Amino acid sequence: MALATTISRNDSGAVVLAFKGELDISRADEVELELDRIENENPNVLVFDLRELEFLDSTGLRIILSADSRARRHGRRVAIVPGPEKVQRVFRITLLDKRLDFVESPDEATENAESVD
Length: 117
Fold this sequence. Notes:
Blueprint: E1 4-9, E2 14-23, H1 28-39, E3 45-56, H2 58-73, E4 77-81, H3 85-93, H4 96-99, H5 106-110
Parallel strand pairs: 2-3, 3-4
Antiparallel strand pairs: 1-2
Helix pairs in contact: 1-2
């Protein structure tokens, strides 16, 4: 299945990227270009909503990790709404479920967007 990406913004300056389908090497360049465009707008919070993601490979994981690293360098936050078990297993196996910021919903991630350090 192809990847569909929905981008939304809220009043607190957060951007939510909701993925549906497969986040893998076949769409990596396209996703990276979109992230570059979004990050240039300096959102306080970038939320990856993985609830409808069916597959995540190492390239998709690298995209999320790179976005998180860039955000930390610039004093911004990346939050992740967990995906299905198959997707979350990738985070657990790599122990990234301990390092990354997981939230229950995009709303939870953006509630305190204005107070991000």
